[in-house]
Design a protein that fits this description.
159 residues, 4 helices, six-stranded mixed beta sheet, Nucleotidyltransferase, domain 5, alpha/beta, 22% strand
Length: 159
């Protein structure tokens, strides 16, 4: 594992040169089976915003869409949701998230963290429950809100 990556249990946030960055622009990614949610955070302010949902699920189409999102938002760190099993172990979905995240980090030269995403989708759906959105619209925005939950959890663990 490269020094710029950390696992769900390793929470050190370092720049590629090894030093902690005071303020970072962070893109959160919630990779899903049908959709991929994106959220953006500024570490200095703690502001977290859901930004987009990609309807590409894997392969070159997803890679192109993620590359475009990174170019558009200009993050200096990535946080990828890690779908751990309820017992904390990594299954096939977590391995796929790591593969996608590692490839993104390598292509863009960005540091990356993996954040436990257990129950973030439920939390996002609860947040959306009071909004006056039809079921289809809620489903479309829920993934971006789940990515925002991942970033909020990551920010909370950064102290």
């Amino acid at each position: 594992m490269s020094p710029r990556r950390s696992t769900a249990s390793q929470r050190t946030s370092q720049s590629p040169a090894g030093g902690r960055t005071l303020s970072e622009r962070v893109l959160g990614i919630d990779l899903g089976g049908k959709r991929t949610g994106l959220a953006f955070a500024e570490t200095a302010s703690g502001l977290v915003m859901p930004v987009d949902v990609l309807h590409a699920v894997e392969g070159p189409i997803l890679n192109t869409a993620l590359d475009a999102a990174i170019k558009e938002h200009g993050p200096n760190r990535l946080v990828i949701g890690l779908p751990l099993n309820m017992d904390g172990t990594e299954g096939p979905a977590a391995k796929k998230s790591r593969q996608t995240g590692d490839a993104l980090a390598d292509r863009h030269g960005l540091p990356i963290d993996y954040q436990d995403e257990r129950l973030t989708s439920f939390s996002a759906e609860a947040d959306l429950a009071d909004r006056k959105l039809n079921r289809r619209k809620k489903k479309n925005v829920a993934d971006a809100h789940a990515a925002a939950e991942i970033l909020r959890d990551w920010l909370a663990e950064q102290g």
